[in-house]
Specification:
Shape: globular
Oligomer: single chain
Distance between the termini: 36 Å
Bound molecules: guanosine-5'-monophosphate, zinc ion
Largest sheet: 5 strands, antiparallel
Helix content: 10-25%
Number of strands: 5
Length: 111
């Protein structure tokens, strides 16, 4: 198994896990760019949003529900937070396992 995030799911690679259920894992980004910087991933290996199919719609809906709950636990719901998918080269995607970035804990800029 080559995928680094699949190895994080199997605990082959350690990570700071903040949330786990049957379908999702969330852990702290190793190179945080904000005080709160969590990666939320499905346990199913999907390379990117560009690869989702109709039968994944419940899973992807669940990913956002998990994000909402993680934001609440991380105390960023009130002040606000950002959810980002990087998809492909131009967006700077570096890991080919679908992941939702949750950023917060400071005023975020947009450029
Ligand atoms: P991307 O650039 O693909 O949207 O985001 C991948 C993210 O995964 C990057 O922010 C990077 O810091 C993070 N990352 C890559 N490898 C690891 C790792 O082994 N552990 C953790 N916790 N984060 C990782
Ligand atoms: Zn994977």
């Amino acid at each position: 198994m080559e995928c680094v995030f699949c190895k994080i799911i199997s605990k082959e690679i350690p990570s700071e896990i903040v949330y786990e259920d049957e379908n999702f894992l969330a852990f702290k980004d190793i190179q945080p760019i904000a005080p709160v910087n969590i990666l939320i991933i499905p346990k199913k290996h999907i390379p990117a949003i560009d690869h989702i199919e109709l039968y994944d719609k419940e899973l992807i809906g669940g990913l956002f529900l998990a994000a909402k709950e993680i934001a609440r636990v991380q105390n960023v719901s009130e002040n606000g937070y950002r959810l980002i998918f990087n998809i492909g080269e131009d967006a700077g995607q570096t890991v080919d396992h679908l992941h939702l970035h949750l950023l917060g804990g400071k005023k975020l800029t947009w450029s």
